Amino acid sequence: MVKAIRMNRVGGPEVMELVDIDLPPPGPGEVRMRHEAIGLNYIDVYHRTGLYPQPLPGALGVEGAGVVEEVGEGVTEFQPGDRVAYGGRPLGAYSEARNIPAAQILPLPKQIEFDTAAAMMLQGLTVQYLFHRTVPLKAGDTVLFHAAAGGVGLIACQWARVMGVNLIGTVGSDEKAALAIENGATHVINYNQENFTERVKELTGGKGVTVVYDSIGKDTFTGSLDCLQPLGMMVSFGNASGPVPPFGLNELASRGSLFITRPSLMAYMARREDLEASARSLFGVVSSGEVKIDIRQRYALADVQQAHRDLEARKTTGSSILLP
């Protein structure tokens, strides 16, 4: 028996229950891995609330790091004792141990600790594809990145600094502003004190930015469009304040033929070769020390309800992990 979080209905944090489950041997193409650490991400809230529907009863969690305990039929690239990590589907990371397709896990370099890996896989791979594939950034570009003091945001601040990109970040407090600056943001806007659209225009001499990265959704969407230069790209990759409401395509034309995309990690990492290439890039900047993973919250797996409350209340900064 292993302990795992399960939910029988969608709703608030109270729907998550810590239960004992029978974990069968891994099936063909699978490995059984024991978690040393588990990532906590805002997408977990979307799964819990039903914004991103999943079958019920269901599991939660899309990121973890640990050790392979057993391999199923046909698995040759991994063996018991291997250190591994993953970020992505299928759900089930909120557990002491799980079975997972071998195609979804990656060998973890020995210089990267389990805690660090669990905190960086989903968020780090997200920044990697946003900066290198969705819009390949180059030195001198100026971009706007919302939630710059969150887990994804702090990685983005550091990676932008490595690339020579000017990152303007938005945050909700002076404490978070200082954190984003410390991690490499060029400018930070406290949206509780300033109108971020007006401030972006001031900072760019009225030109606006080439790209906006927006994981907030409903509350920032229109203002984000107004921050863009003509032919700029709006990257909407999350819904922390709620889904973006329907809008007319003329909203893009009237602002100068803007582009918009709604990417997902799962689509960008669907091919094994893309997953491996992105992971090499991420492991490289973390192993070199150019990007440091700032774990600011650690919760026991049994305290997952409180972890979700803190996440939704925007009480967290940097990365958060669960410990089985």
Automatic annotation (TrEMBL):
Q: Which SMART domains match?
A: PKS_ER
Q: Name one GO cellular component term.
A: cytosol
Gene Ontology MF terms: mRNA 3'-UTR AU-rich region binding; NADPH binding; quinone reductase (NADPH) activity; zinc ion binding
Its transmembrane ranges are: none
Taken from the record, one Pfam family name reads ADH_zinc_N
Provide the alphabetized UniProt keywords.
NADP, Oxidoreductase
Enzyme nomenclature, EC number? 1.6.5.5
Q: Cite the InterPro entries for this sequence.
A: ADH-like_C (IPR013149), ADH-like_N (IPR013154), ER (IPR020843), GroES-like_sf (IPR011032), NAD(P)-bd_dom_sf (IPR036291), QOR-like (IPR047618), Quin_OxRdtase/zeta-crystal_CS (IPR002364)
Tell me the ranges covered by the Enoyl reductase (ER) domain, including all copies: 11-322
**Highest taxon of source:** Bacteria
Please tell me which top-level EC class this enzyme sits in: oxidoreductase
> Cross-referenced PROSITE patterns, in alphabetical order?
QOR_ZETA_CRYSTAL (PS01162)
Report the PANTHER family cross-referenced here. Answer: QUINONE OXIDOREDUCTASE PIG3-RELATED (PTHR48106), QUINONE OXIDOREDUCTASE-RELATED (PTHR48106:SF13)
**This protein's name:** NADPH:quinone reductase
**The organism's lineage?**
Bacteria, Pseudomonadati, Pseudomonadota, Betaproteobacteria, Burkholderiales
